[in-house]
Each structure stands twice: as C-alpha cells, then as structure tokens.
C-alpha cells in the first residue's frame, strides 16, 4: 500500500489558505483510511497536522457537549468558523451577479470563477441554477447567449458543454480564416482557364492548392490557373 504524507503545517499567517489546506487534508484522510478511525484519532491527527498553533486555538473552542470534542466534523466546523470571518452574503452575491466573461478570457476560466464566487453566496440547492444563469447572461458570445435563453429545459452541464463547443468552433473557424488569408496574400489574383490570363505565372503553388476564380468563382487548381 502506498504511503501518503499529510500536508505541510497550516500557515496561520495566511488564513485565506484554510480552504485549500483543508481540502488537501481531507484527501489525505481518505487516502490513508484515516476516515475509518474513531473520532478522537481523527481529531488528534488534524490538530497534529496543522501544527502547534492549532492546539492553542482548539483549547479556546467551546462545545455544546464534551463528547463533541472528539467528533471530527464538529471540530473541523469550529476551525471553519475561526478562519472564515462572517461574510456579507449580499456583497458576495453582488460580486457573483456582476461577473461577466472578460475580453480574452477563456470560457473555462470564466466558469471556474463563477464556481468559486458562488461558494460563499448561500445559494443552497439552487447553486447550479444560479451558475447556469450567470453563464448564459455573462458569456461574451451574445449570439450563443441568445440561443441558450431560448432553451426551456437547460441544465448546467448542457450549458457548459454548449459554451465550450461554441468556443472551440470559433477558434477553428478563426484558424481557417487566417490560413485562407495567408494563401490570398501569397496568390493575390487567380483566374480559371475560362477567364483570361491574369494569374501569377511566376509563382508555383502547391499542386493540391485549390482556389475560386476571382471573376466567376469557379473552383480551380491554382497551379492550372497560373499556367493558363
């Protein structure tokens, strides 16, 4: 069985890192099957992993019953209260509802930001609905936003998938446009054999290159047109 080390001691001078540290400890707790031990062992392991200062903080906690001191979830909740100051839910929700996709920001980053902002909004069971609505309204692709708003049965996962696919298609179309522009710059005027001899006969393009005649839009091989 693999051996797992607990996360490094918690940096008490940076309380905002509590959420990340707690998540790492929870993974350590599951990976080592510490979560199968009795409460006293789990609580002691938590305090030991956090470092000496955690012991002093623990001593200052008050519990409804003495037995709660040996309940992991209860003790962890006490540390949550200690490190998380009372939040202004109205302000947290305002930040969430004002968040839009920024210029140049990928959809994935925008979606991740909404998940993080929603953590402290107390949305409860409606959290996914709020995230879904914010994605629909806040994405920079307004045409996609309009299409999503027409859907009457739209889930969060469907919304995320649609936005990701739209962004990927847009990226591919832009790449194709850049490639076509490069060909246009290299072979500025190409006529098919039916429309005169204005092609650049000095430049030999790839045999597989195909362009539309600039007069009749008849698809023709660039090499053939140039030779004409």
> Ends: how far apart?
74 Å
Number of strands: 2
Mean pLDDT, to the nearest integer, reads 84
Question: Biggest β-sheet: count, sense, barrel?
Answer: 2 strands, antiparallel
Helix content: 55-70%
Low-confidence stretches: 208-227
Overall shape: elongated
Give the count of structural domains. 3
What is the helix tally?
10
Q: What would you report as the Rg, rounded to the nearest angstrom?
A: 30 Å
Portion in beta strands: under 5%
Helices and strands: which structural class? mainly alpha
H-E order:
HHHHHHHHHEEH
Organism: Knipowitschia caucasica (Caucasian dwarf goby)
Protein name: Tick transposon
How do the strands and helices of this protein lay out in sequence?
Elements lengths: L17 H14 L7 H12 L1 H9 L11 H12 L5 H10 L8 H12 L8 H12 L3 H8 L6 H31 L23 E3 L6 E3 H6 L1
Antiparallel strand pairs: 1-2
Helix pairs in contact: 6-7, 7-8, 7-9
Give a structural overview:
The N and C termini lie far apart (74 Å). This protein folds into three domains: 15-83, no CATH class; 89-178; 186-227, no CATH class. The chain has helices at 18-31, 39-50, 52-60, 72-83, 89-98, 107-118, 127-138, 142-149, 156-186, 222-227; strands spanning 210-212, 219-221. Strands 1-2 form a two-stranded antiparallel ribbon. The protein is mostly helical and 228 residues long. Helix content is 55%, strand content 3%. The longest helix is centred in the last third of the chain and has 31 residues, at 156-186.
């Amino acid at each position: 069985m693999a051996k797992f080390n607990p996360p490094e001691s918690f940096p008490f001078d940076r309380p905002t890192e509590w959420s990340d540290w707690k998540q790492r400890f929870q993974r350590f707790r599951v990976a080592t099957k510490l979560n199968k031990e009795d409460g006293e062992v789990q609580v002691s392991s938590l305090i030991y992993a956090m470092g000496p200062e955690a012991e002093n903080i623990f001593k200052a906690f008050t519990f409804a019953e003495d037995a709660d001191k040996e309940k992991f979830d209860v003790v962890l909740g006490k540390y949550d209260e200690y490190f998380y100051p009372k939040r202004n839910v109205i302000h947290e929700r305002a930040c969430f509802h004002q968040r839009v996709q920024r210029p140049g920001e990928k959809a994935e980053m925008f979606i991740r930001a909404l998940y993080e902002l929603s953590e402290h909004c107390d949305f409860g069971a409606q959290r996914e609905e709020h995230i879904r609505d914010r994605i629909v309204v806040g994405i920079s692709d307004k045409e996609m936003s309009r299409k999503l708003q027409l859907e009457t049965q739209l889930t969060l996962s469907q919304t995320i998938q649609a936005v990701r696919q739209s962004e990927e298609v847009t990226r591919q179309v832009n790449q194709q446009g850049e490639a076509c522009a490069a060909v246009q710059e290299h072979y500025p005027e190409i006529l098919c054999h039916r429309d005169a001899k204005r092609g650049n006969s000095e430049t030999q393009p790839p045999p597989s290159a195909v362009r539309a005649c600039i007069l009749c839009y008849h698809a023709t091989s660039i090499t053939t047109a140039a030779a004409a």
